[in-house]
Write a structure and sequence with these properties.
The complex is a heterotetramer of chains A (396), B (691), C (107) and D (166). The model of chain A has no long low-confidence stretch (mean pLDDT 83). With 396 residues, chain A is mainly α. Chain A is built from 13 helices and two strands, in the order ααααααααββααααα. Chain A has helices at residues 3-11, 13-22, 30-64, 80-90, 101-118, 136-157, 161-192, 197-204, 219-235, 260-285, 301-322, 328-356, 360-383; strands at 207-208, 211-212. In chain A, helix 5 runs parallel beside helix 10 (260-285), helix 7 runs antiparallel to helix 9 (219-235) and helix 10 crosses helix 11 (301-322). Helices cover 66% and strands 1% of the residues of chain A. Chain B has 691 residues and is mainly alpha-helical. Chain B is built from 29 helices and two strands. The mean pLDDT of chain C is 82. The model of chain D has no long low-confidence stretch (mean pLDDT 82). Chain D has six helices and no strands. With 166 residues, chain D is mainly α. The chains are: A mainly alpha (396), B mainly alpha (691), C mainly alpha (107), D mainly alpha (166). Chains in contact: A-B, A-D, B-C, B-D, C-D. Chains C and D meet through helix 1, helix 2 and helix 3 of C and helix 1, helix 2, helix 3, helix 4 and helix 5 of D.
Chain lengths: 396, 691, 107, 166
């Protein structure tokens, strides 16, 4: 068969596979079975990805702090996650005596379930979305909001001041940054004119002079993406926003009192949240599964999607290896006094962009406004010595 | 919204400039916003921003103008519009939009050009003011709003900008608010124009309710075109007017307020309390002309249904008001001694000319005078400013004199402006524009009175300008200290304006009526033979006569003899019965004071009296009654003390206690009672409404 | 029973029950926060009614019920914020959130 | 009238009941969260995707958290001495029962009058958006104002008084 058709088959391989498998069933059951298969695929793929990521993260952090990461189990220690899994399964599941049994038990389940729900609307490749929902974006963030309650349940139920503090911090942080997350998404929705993720991707999956129409390549898109990245980092409690589990202050935050499999579930839940939020960012700003160059379209779409997701995961790890942790008040001020205003400004600029319509003026105008805002902000910061070059005093 | 608006405009061939026309007003407004947040010390930056933004606007306006001329020369319809639905309440869309047609293009060019010159001038004039940045903030806000008035295609947008213009005028008149007179003048201007704007707004509402659209032009369904206009003509407007006429008159009331026509002219002279550039820009060249422009914009409304006489009642009113104002203000101007006040009254009278021109000869005639007047009156004001500047803030013309030696450049340019204002034949633009008005008046079918009025006004104009010039520039110096010529940044604009005060005449001569043709969208044909036809020559003769008469009279009375400032004016010596009332501005202010203002004061007093006497009286009466009642009770107690009475008291207090228990302050009790009541009510309703 | 043949009836009954529960809670609980929760429940019941009528009503494309529900959700959020703020303020004044202890008109 | 509806209805009612009966405030808050979730699912059952997701986002994501915070800030977590129900709980219960009786009776009375649209309405989020910025733009603006005012008000009300201001 010709190369193109081969690559198109390769592109659709999972879809074809599903259809083939479903083909064995009576027609009445096929749709349901298809959904079940897709769900199974998701439920298998992402935990696998999670296992890989843990290794990569530990090794990568090791490199950044120039030490070897895990390198005992298997070749280069790549079977480390297997060992960890076995350990967490076989460990004793400790529940504090004064803990609130039911809630303590439910918390991790709620977390994992809601996080998994988020994947339902992410298009992971051409025609590779579980449910093409009309209000997909809304659904995604609704699920994201639902995780907070689980965090609270965990923190409160285990009757431990560290846990409670961690949970409170986590929730405060999540709520504050969720606003930013949503607002930075709104600008994309405004331009794409749809809440359905496949439609948003289609809006970006066009090329002029071989270059893609990804939203990150527009002034407002870039601004929104930056804000989204910040908010996403905070939303997933990653460094530098990892106060909720700042081990130096509160032992391990809201899952201090969890051990064994439940702890593993929390761990899983957090990484899944990272995946899903990176996938969302990819879909909103980086054109989802579309290729970065028209010339590269032959490469299967799902490779692009997962490649982009892993790229952003790498950035997460990189930041963790690089940035120091913020203080709580700094965190809040940052959220409400810097990120939110700029997101709003970005929204206004997006509206202006939409209003100006096609043509060069909108590029000039929007770029000017945003650049001016950022520059002025920096100047103001320098002017009032809030931010700007720090002066260090070394012990002599 | 925007995209849709574009989508359903037929024949989407809209030029870039028409689409981005809104940038012209937007730029100065943005600039003013930026200037507003600057620190006071950033003078250069402020001025730079204002001037840059306005010059960009000027550039864009020029592009737009060229575009329109191209359309017109190409013979296609020279009107491009761009409408946006702002939002819609229920089913009624609230539309905004802008229009680019000859009228708008001309005005854009004039406003941004004169504005730019005056900006530059003010850099010099305001150099020593500590509120420099604030001044430029207001000034460029004004420029933006004025340009907005010019381009707006939606009467709502026009009204917004109109009010914004009024606001900036208020702010700028009261710029030196430390001076109580300035503050008072600002308030007077604001309130007086409000009176007109109320009627204007009524007109807008009526227009909207009649046509259901706020847009002037919208491809045949706007309020000034097609079916809507015809319906307006047929609809009844009361007082034997058509709705069109009535609405037109209401809008005209707004114009009367803004451009100081007869009943509401009182604020304009006082507005001279503001800085001179402001007087030049706002109260001579642009804002006061906005009224005239407004009438020109809604001219279809005024002129539709013109009878055999070739005019409508609305236009007749406009004519009469205009010509009356022209003479009235000119009369007052004769007897003023403040250099800026004279110019202010002359502005009022010239605005009267424009109105009369609109009423008599249509858009072209009025607009032509508007444009020329904008240039030479701005020139005169800036010249006056330079004179004041040179004479150390002296404004009384009796304390000047002989300045032609001290300030030659100012003198030369001022002379040009003066001659243009007098309508000195052939050379000066003022002649051609005023001539057109007089000609139109001469051919007016209804009555010849306006013609005579306007002619008389012209004589007076020449007269008082001669008086002023001979007071200021001739004779010998009577002020304090010595006068000095103003800096270059101030005189350069004067020179430019002077050039235009002469050159602009060329585009409107009867020989080559380019302006009229452009505005009325017909091909321009040069017909120089008209210039030697007896009719024109006769007119030329008369106007020459008029000007000569005025100037001669002026020179005879005031020429080159410079009386002491203390000695009364020559006219005052010879004809005090004429002079005194004129000097006191024909007592209009006094009249208002004893009528309207007095009425309001009286009304306030009445209300106050009501409060004190009637209501207060009632209250105290009630109190008194109760007092009596109490006394009565006490008497009863005294005579009627027995157990039954105590018992009643007990019962009462118990009942009170019972009732008080309900008011437990427990929220849930209230909620409970509420819920129970709701249940009962619902049950009753359902039961009663059961099938 | 034949009444439940119409799906709408079921929804309405559920809404009515939820409303009653909320009201009961608002009436019997002593803690101000619980009262607020009860009120939230009542609001939600009303929303359910709106949505149900929108779904089974003759003109779903008019979106009236839907819009009403959306707006009431927004308003309910505001109400919760202000109400809980008030509860906290009251708690600061009178160290309690139990309504039958808060019966003085001035804190 | 399928089984899903019964399940969701049962879940919602159970959540509501638990919320109102549970002694512990936090438990009650979690229970009411369950009720909110059930309602959201009911909305989805009614083909009202947008409203359902909005419900989850606002109620579970914000209101529930808000309630929990308030409980913890007012030390509501420990049990009060005098019981959680007010002394006159039976009155309240009776009134609530009355309300339910009236409402239910009304509903059952008007069964035959109720509309019977069975086809799912084809309303997309796009339509809702257009409606919001179209004919409902004024309410939208007003709600925006209301929310702003409420935010500021809540902050001000809950702010710590300065010393001596009290």
């Amino acid at each position: 068969m010709s190369a193109t058709s081969f690559f198109s088959r390769l592109d659709q391989i999972f879809v074809l596979l599903r259809n083939w498998l479903v083909g064995f069933l009576p027609p009445t059951m096929r749709p349901a079975a298809g959904v079940v298969l897709a769900v199974m695929a998701i439920v298998c793929v992402f935990p696998g990805l999670f296992a890989l990521t843990t290794v990569f993260e530990r090794k990568g952090l090791g490199r950044m702090q120039n030490r070897l990461g895990p390198n005992r189990v298997g070749p280069f220690g790549f079977f480390q996650p297997v060992a960890d899994g076995i350990k967490s399964l076989t460990k004793e599941d400790i529940v504090p005596i004064s803990a609130d049994g039911l809630v303590h038990f439910l918390a991790p389940l709620v977390l994992v379930v809601t996080v998994f729900m988020g994947f339902a609307v992410l298009p992971m490749g051409r025609n590779m979305v579980l449910v093409d929902m009309d209000a997909g974006v809304l659904f995604f963030f609704a699920m994201g909001a639902a995780t907070e309650i689980s965090v609270f349940m965990a923190g409160w139920s285990s009757r431990n001041k560290y846990s409670l503090l961690g949970a409170m911090r986590a929730i405060a942080q999540m709520i504050s940054y969720e606003v930013v997350l949503l607002l930075s998404t709104v600008s994309v929705v405004m331009i794409a004119g749809s809440l359905s993720l496949p439609k948003i991707i289609d809006a970006q999956n066009q090329y002029s002079w071989g270059l893609p129409h990804w939203y990150i390549f527009t002034p407002w898109g870039l601004g929104a993406f930056i804000m989204y990245a910040i908010a996403a980092t905070a939303e997933t409690n990653r460094s530098p926003f990892d106060l909720p589990e700042g081990e130096s202050e509160l032992v391990a935050g809201y899952h201090t009192e969890y051990s064994g499999f439940k702890f593993a579930l929390f761990f899983l839940g957090e990484y899944l949240a990272m995946f899903s939020i990176s996938g969302m960012g990819t879909t909103l700003f980086l054109g989802g599964w579309s290729a970065p160059l028209a010339a590269l379209n032959w490469i299967p779409s799902w490779i692009w999607f997962f490649g982009k997701v892993m790229m952003s995961i790498f950035v997460f790890i990189w930041m963790r290896g690089t940035l120091p942790r913020l203080r709580q008040d700094q965190l809040m001020n940052f959220a409400w006094k810097f990120v939110l205003p700029f997101t709003l400004l970005n929204l206004l600029v997006t509206a202006l962009w939409r209003f100006l319509g096609e043509g060069w003026p909108r590029w000039v105008l929007c770029t000017l406004i945003l650049a001016a805002a950022y520059v002025l902000m920096g100047r103001a910061g320098l002017y009032r010595k809030h931010i700007g070059p720090r002066s260090y005093r070394y012990a002599e | 919204m925007m995209q849709e608006a574009v989508a359903f405009t037929p024949g989407g061939a809209r030029s870039m400039i028409a689409q981005y026309l809104w940038l012209i007003p937007a730029l100065p407004i943005i600039a003013s916003g930026v200037i507003a947040v600057l620190r006071q010390s950033r003078r250069k930056l402020a001025a730079g921003l204002a001037i840059t933004s306005l010059s960009v606007s000027l550039l864009l306006s020029f592009i737009a103008f060229v575009r329109v001329v191209g359309h017109w020369a190409g013979g296609s319809v020279a009107r491009e519009i761009f409408n946006v639905t702002w939002f819609s309440v229920g089913s009624a869309p609230v539309d905004l939009g802008w229009v680019l047609d000859p009228l708008a293009a001309i005005m854009l060019l004039m406003v941004s050009f004169v504005g730019l010159l005056i900006f530059i001038y003010s850099v010099g004039y305001m150099a020593h003011d500590e509120n420099f940045t604030r001044f430029f903030c207001f000034l460029s806000l004004f420029a933006g709003a004025m340009l907005g008035v010019v381009i707006s295609n939606s009467i709502l947008l026009l009204f917004m900008c109109w009010e914004l213009v009024g606001l900036t005028s208020y702010l700028l008149i009261g710029f030196w608010y430390q001076k109580p007179s300035a503050a008072a003048a600002a308030k007077k201007a604001f309130i007086t124009t409000r009176v007109g704007d109320i009627f204007f707004f009524l007109g807008i509402v009526w227009l909207f309710s009649q046509t259901g659209t706020l847009l002037f032009y919208n491809y045949g369904v706007g309020s000034l075109e097609g079916l809507n206009l015809a319906n307006l003509l047929t609809a009844r407007g009361g007082l034997g007017l058509s709705a069109a006429g009535a609405i037109g008159l209401l809008i005209f009331a707004g114009a009367v307020g803004k451009s100081g026509q007869l009943p509401l002219h009182v604020w304009l002279p006082d507005a001279m309390e503001g800085p001179t550039p402001v007087s030049a820009l706002i109260h001579a060249a642009t804002m006061v002309a906005a009224g005239v422009f407004l009438i020109a914009r809604v001219y279809p409304l005024m002129s539709i249904g013109a009878g055999a006489a070739g005019t409508t009642s609305a236009l007749t009113v406009v004519t009469w008001v205009g010509s009356a104002t022209a003479v009235f203000a000119a009369l007052i101007a004769v007897a003023q001694n403040d250099i800026k006040r004279i110019l202010a009254y002359s502005t009022v009278s010239q605005l009267g000319y424009m109105m009369a021109g609109l009423g008599l000869g249509g858009v072209a005639v009025g607009m032509f005078h508007l444009i020329t007047h904008a240039f030479f009156k701005a020139l005169l004001f800036l010249g006056a400013g330079s004179v004041i500047h040179g004479c150390h803030e002296e404004q009384d013309i009796r304390r000047m004199g002989g300045l032609r030696a001290d300030m030659p450049l100012t003198f030369a340019t001022y002379g040009v402006g003066m001659l243009a204002l007098c309508g000195f034949p052939i050379v000066f633009s003022g002649f051609w524009s005023k001539d057109a008005i007089l000609e139109a008046a001469q051919h007016w079918s209804l009555s010849k009175v306006p013609f005579y009025l306007l002619v008389f006004g012209a004589v007076l104009t020449a007269f008082y300008m001669t008086r002023q010039v001979s007071y200021v520039f001739f004779g010998y110096w009577r002020g304090r200290g010595t006068a000095h010529e103003s800096p270059r940044v101030m005189t350069m604009p004067l020179a430019v304006l002077a050039f235009f005060a002469i050159a602009l005449g060329a585009i409107g001569t009867p020989g080559w009526p380019w302006f009229r043709a452009f505005l009325e969208n017909q091909p321009a044909t040069a017909a120089f033979y008209v210039l030697i036809e007896p009719e024109f020559l006769a007119l030329l003769g008369t106007s020459t006569l008029i000007v000569a008469l005025g100037i001669g009279l002026g020179l005879w009375l005031y020429g080159n003899k410079s009386p002491k400032p203390e000695t009364p004016d020559i006219l005052e010596q010879s004809a005090p019965w004429l002079w005194i009332p004129l000097r006191d501005k024909l007592y209009v202010d006094e009249f208002y004071r004893v009528t309207f203002i007095a009425f309001y004061a009286w009304w306030a007093r009445v209300a106050d009296w009501f409060d004190r006497r009637i209501w207060g009286g009632i209250v105290s009466a009630v109190a008194l009654i109760f007092g009596l009642w109490a006394k009565l009770n006490r008497a009863l107690d005294m005579y009627w003390v027995d157990g039954s009475f105590d018992k009643t008291c007990e019962e009462l207090s118990n009942g009170g206690g019972l009732l008080a228990r309900v008011q437990s302050g427990l929220v849930q009790n209230y909620l409970r009672i509420l819920a129970a009541a709701v249940v009962a009510l619902a049950a009753i309703l359902l039961w009663s409404s059961r099938p | 029973m034949t009444a439940l043949t119409s799906p709408l009836t079921g929804y309405l009954l559920v809404a009515a029950l939820l409303f009653a529960i909320g009201l009961a809670g608002a009436l019997v609980r002593r803690n101000a926060i619980m009262v607020l929760i009860g009120i939230e429940l009542m609001l939600n019941a009303a929303n359910l009614n709106f949505i149900a009528f929108w779904r089974y009503g003759p003109h779903p494309e008019a979106l009236t019920g839907m819009m009403f529900a959306i707006f009431s959700i927004a308003v309910a959020a505001a109400e919760a914020a202000v109400g809980l703020g008030l509860v906290i303020a009251i708690y600061r004044h009178t160290n309690t959130t139990e309504l039958d202890k808060i019966n003085r008109m001035k804190g | 009238m399928n089984v899903v509806f019964y399940l969701l209805a049962a879940l919602t009612i159970a959540g509501g009941l638990a919320a109102m009966l549970l002694k512990h405030l936090i438990h009650a808050a979690l229970a009411v969260t369950v009720a909110f979730a059930g309602l959201a699912l009911l909305f989805l059952q009614l083909d009202a995707q947008f409203a359902g997701f909005a419900q989850i986002l606002v109620y579970i994501g914000a209101v529930a958290i808000l309630i929990v915070f308030a409980i913890l800030l007012t030390h509501g977590a420990e049990l009060p001495r005098g019981g959680v129900f007010s002394g006159t709980w039976f009155v309240g219960l009776a009134i609530a029962a009355g309300v339910f009786a009236v409402l239910g009776w009304a509903v059952l009375q008007s069964v035959h009058a109720l509309p019977q649209q069975t086809a799912a309405p084809a309303v997309t989020v796009h339509d809702i958006g257009n409606a919001l910025v179209g004919s409902y733009v004024l309410p939208l603006e007003i709600v925006a104002l209301l929310l702003t005012a409420a935010t500021i008000g809540a902050v001000i009300v809950a702010m710590h008084e300065k010393a001596g201001q009290k």
